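User: Write out your own:

AI:
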Amino acid sequence: MKTSLLSRLVIASPFASAWIALIGLLLVDALAFPASVSSGAFSAVLPLAAFLAIASIGQMLVIMTGGIDLSVPGVITMSGTVVLGLSHGSNGSLAGAIAGVLVIAAIVGFVNGVLVSVTKLNPLIVTLSVGGVALGGATAYRTGLAQEANVPGRLATWASGEFLGVSTIFWLALVLAALVSLAIRYTVVGRRFLIVGGNPRAARVAGIAVRRYQIAAYTAAGVLYAVAGLLLAGFVRTPTLDVGDPYLLGPIAAVVIAGTSLAGGTASVMATFAAAWFLTQLSQTLRVEGLSSAWQYVVFGAAIAIGMLVSGDRILAVVGTRMLRRPVSVP
């Protein structure tokens, strides 16, 4: 019994940091910067946290396979632009426009996955290039649209709505996080995905199609980026060509802070959600204190550096070694 408890503690320890950081920040804000945790501030923060959380979960799936994805800003911007063009601002065309955006984003993610897993190209270069192509395509497509074009009213109304006093976008992000977490933990596909990320060689020996899972990770990530882009487009109503810019470093920072193993395999969806909320709340605190938005990039960059120092790999090694060195009494 004690051995089982120790094992669970070792496994869960890397993912506690995100929750500790979030709770600690909220307590500090409540005491020192109450304006940053007012009802009005929360109404502004929660949707932004949701956008980052959804994009971060997509990034997490990629990092779990030992890769990384820098196409996030391009896919988010492309999604907001394409939904404008396909819907023409009409509620009647909204469903088809959303479906079209998701399909295109899935294709972008699929291309990333094939180039990384099949051709063995560097994921940093590949995804940055593919993201640039997506952004370039969105820019060319946007020039043919009316600059004052808005997303369909139904999407904008839904994105600004609330349920139980909390943003519907935040609820959707929470549901998505829970579904992805359950799928990874309790389905055969999810468990195989963990094996592929943790030890690709052992997965091949076990007969698992490693490349398929790696391609699927990038494809699913592309879809999640598109969901974030669609929700963001509805929230701002008139998405511009720089709407995805803040999502280059943010998702990576959230994944690292959440304790995800950079070697692949080990990750927590809900910890990633908490880390995204923490980063968004931290940015809100900086803005309330009058610091410029440029500090957001400084914070995200510092978060990645600090997260690398206390990444899941390091915590697992340190905590696991110290805990397992202790004598275990067997009743």
About this structure: The mean pLDDT is 83.
